[in-house]
Every structure is written in C-alpha cells, then in structure tokens.
Amino acid sequence: MVETTNCSSHLVKGVVQPGAGFHTLAEELKCYIMSFLSCQDILCCASVSKALRQTYISSSELQYIVELEGQQLLPVPDTQNRSPISKRLKLLRDKAHAWFNIDFHSFETVTINSYSEQKYVADGHLYLWDQEEDLATIIPIFPKPSQQTIQRNWSPGTLCPVSNSANLDVFLDPAQNLKAVVYQVDHETLSIDLGTLDCDSDHPQAAGRTLYLSGPPGYDDNRVQTTSAKLRGCGRHIALQRSVEVVVDYGAGIYYENMWQLQIWDWQRSTTSNSVLGVTTLHGFGFCFLGSNRILIVADNNLKLYSIEDISQTPQLLACFVSPLPLSYIQCFLPMDDGEHCSLSHVQQTTYTSDAKRRLVCLISSFPTRVFIISTRVFFNVEAAVATPKPIPWNHWGPSNARIFEHHYSCKVHVCGNRVLQAFPVDTPASSPNEYVLHMMDFSPLATTNRRGLGRVVKEASTINYTGKFAESLTISTSLPYVEVVSDRKFSFDKLKAMWIDKDRIYLLNTNWARTLTTLEVINV
Fold first, then answer.
1. Which of 425, 473, 488, 518 is most enclosed, with most CB atoms within 10 A?
2. What is the DSSP letter of 392?
C-alpha cells in the first residue's frame, strides 16, 4: 500500500521511502498513479529515483503530460482523435520545433478584391468590415478538407434586419456560428442584434434576438449620444465598449461631458445585463476577456481585473495592477480563437488547446509606442477578493511576468497562446526604416528544449529608460524568458499593413500605395 495525502510533495517522499512497496508495483500501475501528478511533481519524482526516472522515460503518457504543461496547453476532452499517445507526443514536439524553423519564403497568396478599414483573421477566416459603406465579408483561408467553413458577403442594409438602422460595429464568430451587430435607429438608443452567421436566422443558443443596453446611471437616455462603439466576444459573453457624450445642465446653460462605458452580456442566458462599468479617462481604454469569468480593463496607468461570473450585477474588482509607464490610447490583444471554445472543425483533429491561465496578453500603448507582453498567470494568482483591493506595485507583479518592447515607428504585433509575432525595422543609417524583419518569440517553459539548437534564448533582463513627469529618470526592467527566431526575409515598411498568428499559420496583409491591390500571404508552419 502507498499512503498519500492531498499534498503531492508527500507523495514524492512516500514513493521513495524504503519498504513503502511502490517500486514493486507493475510499471503500468506506477504510471497510472504518477499520471495524477502535475508536470512539476512528475519531474520531481523522476529526479529522486533512478527507477522512477526509468518509469518516466519509458512512459509516453507521463511525457505527454509534461509536454502539454511545459507548452502551457490543456488537453481537449472527448475528441475523436484515437491515435496512440506516443504519436500525439511526437506531433506535439515536432509542431513546437517547427515554429523555430519557419520558411518565410514559402507562402500561399489570397487576393482581396475589396478594401476595408477593419480587417482581422481568426479561426481560419478573414473578416472585412466597412462601416461607411455598410459592407461585411467573411472568407475561409485555404481550408483543410475536413474543416467546416463559412463564406458570406453582406451588401448594404443586409447586416441587420432592423430597418433604417445605422450599424456601428460587427462581431463575427464562426466557432459559434454567431453574428452580432450593434446598431442605432434615428440616433437613439443602441441595441445589439444576434443571428446565425451562415443564414442570419435566430441563433438557437441565444436568449433572444436583441440585447438591450443600459445608459450611464443618473442620466436621461435622451441626453446621451454614442460617439463610438466596439463589440467583442468570448464564448457566452459579449461586451460593448462605447464612448458617450452626455448633455449636462450647468446653471443657465449646458455643457457636454465625455465618458466611456463597458457593458457585458451572457447572451445565451439573458438579453439584459446589469454588468456595466463606467470608465473615466481622457485617452480611452482597452479590455480583453481572461478565460470564461474574468475581464481585464486597462486605463490610465492601471490594469484592473474584474470578475464577470454574475452579469446580473456590476463586475467585481479583484485586483488593481499598477503600470510602471503611462498607458495612452491603449489596445489589448488576446485573440478570439485563442479562447476556451474552439470550432467544430478543429475539435475533431485537435487534442489540446491554450491554457487561459498561462497564455500571453499583449498591450500596446501609444505616444511613444510600447508593447507589453504579459503572462496571464499573474491575473490568476490573486488572493480572495476584498471590498477595496489595494493597488499592487509594479515591482511586486511585473518584472518576472512581462517583457516590454519599445518601437520608434509603426508597430505590428500579434499573439497566440505563448507565441508572439512582432515586426522590427531593419537597422539602417537612414532617418526612417524602409523594411521590417519579423521576430517569432516563444515564451513557453519548454521553448528552450523544443528549439533543438535553433533560435536565440533570451533570459537576461531588458530595460526601458523613461523620464517621469517630474523629470526624474526611471529604468524599467523586465525578464520574462523567451526564445526567438528572426526572419531571413525582409518586408516592405510601406506595404506590410497587418499580421496575425494562430496555432498553424502566419498571415501577412500587404497593400500597395494606391490601395488598389491587397493580398494576404499565408505561411504554413
């Protein structure tokens, strides 16, 4: 018999005690018992006994557990993949290594016949949205034979079934066959229309066709004017970020007060929501979902973490992280297809997905442009919520959980899981750059192993010099380790307009100077 406790360290000690009997068990039984341990505890067991190390080396299942956790992935349950664990382990390792051996000269090209201001790639599809022309398009990008795809074109007046509506933003999610459109009729109250992506019918999982907004508390809706709106979604949640202009009486006259508002719905359970936040800031704010029940809001010099588990009430503030640098006109990136749900087309072939608690979030601050790469683990290590959480100083959370990159010119960056694709200008004597090179960065703990000698390991701290508001000189250090490879191909500074990265591909959007030809290069990994 092997005596164990809930503490895995006791198990490690117990299995090596003389007379405990663990070593006399069959290999299959030892592997089965060790499979309940975490990656760290499996490796700990393998380090304290030659016999247990041999058990680990001979077990593909234990190595697969370690590999998944080392790449910060989670197994997908109930998949139709019946391949042996040994084969899955090899594919997982080979795929990780392939990202260090990318052929940037080998790509396929998609020609895009329409120009749209808003473009993005997610879940193997290209999305185009032109608010001025009221046009939207979704195009599958070189789909695999088994992949389910959606291809649609919406002409003016067809995105939203409400007549005389002005559409302010569109959110398309092929993983859930969902189309959400935030619209306004006669410059009055906003609403959100929900429908299926493939045929615009009522969505079978939605609580209703229309999501209803709440105005800023304490103000008459007739005195509130929306000046901008942005939709985002993750699983069962949809969020609307909007800026509003409110007419306020002041003595004998009136004045206009500007404010920001964020409202979140559980669209599968209710068409209304009390989950509303007012954000006071001069330079806007950014936000992103973290898993299924948390949201991160970045405004001014703070990163505020909220619980959205109960959307019948105002989001609960869990923690406030202080930024070491000013955050102006912030953008947050945590891709939609990097969330906890995945499309039916991928479930059949994918046996793992990114772990929401251990992936990367990217923040881009302007003037000057700085890119913050932050591990989400810091946002899941907060203690139980208190009534008024104290701000957490940068030195207590930031340096070992982040990297900050400074850009003096146009910034192009995208993240997926624990990988970052970032464009840096080629060093030239000229005053402004003409070309980019691409840096692929892997921040997972096993990146140094899976690179197999390729790329450059970066463990030393990097620094940003900053002059504070009182003219004091500050040095900000960050040290989240990563491995990077740099493309041997150069890209035109003027033509490369955007880029994206997902689990299998790199996408590069190029446009000529006259905007008459737009192409999407697709690099398979």
1. 518
2. B
Q: Residue type at 434? A: N
Helix (H) or strand (E) holding 413: strand 412-416
Please state the φ and ψ torsions of residue 425, each to the nearest 5 degrees.
-70, 145
- Within 221-269, residue ranges assigned H as helices are none
Residue 524 pLDDT > 80? yes
What is d(CA 510, CA 518) in angstroms, rounded to the nearest whole number?
6
The DSSP annotation for 159-227 comes to S-SSTTEEEEEEEEEGGGTEEEEEEEETT--EEEEEEETTT----TTSS-SEEE--PPTTS-GGGEEEE
**Closest Cα partner for 353 from 36, 92, 102?**
92
More confident of the two residues 470 and 442: 442
Alpha-carbon gap, residue 414 to 95, rounded angstroms: 19
List phi, psi (to 5°) of 411.
-105, 135
Task: Output the 3-class SS for 102-161.
Answer: CCCCCCEEEEECCCCCEEEEECCEEEEEECCCCEEEEEECCCCCCCCCCCEEECCCCCCC
Three-state DSSP state, 422: strand
The string of DSSP codes covering 345-361 is HHHTT--EEE-GGGSEE
Place of tokens 């859930």: 176
Q: Are 178 and 194 in contact (CB under 8 A)?
A: yes
Residue 351's nearest CA partner among 33, 62, 28, 87 is 87
Triad 39, 44, 47: Cα angle to 5°? 130
Q: What is the pLDDT of residues 113-167, one digit of tens each?
A: 776 778 889 888 999 999 888 899 999 999 888 778 889 999 998 998 888 889 9
Distance, in Å, from the CA atom of 390 to the CA atom of 136, rounded to the nearest integer, reads 44
Question: Can you tell me the distance from the alpha carbon of 442 to that of 102, in angstroms, rounded to the nearest whole number?
Answer: 13
- Cβ-count burial of 420 within 10 angstroms (0-12 exposed, 13-18 middle, 19+ buried)? buried
What's the predicted TM-score (pTM) here? 0.88
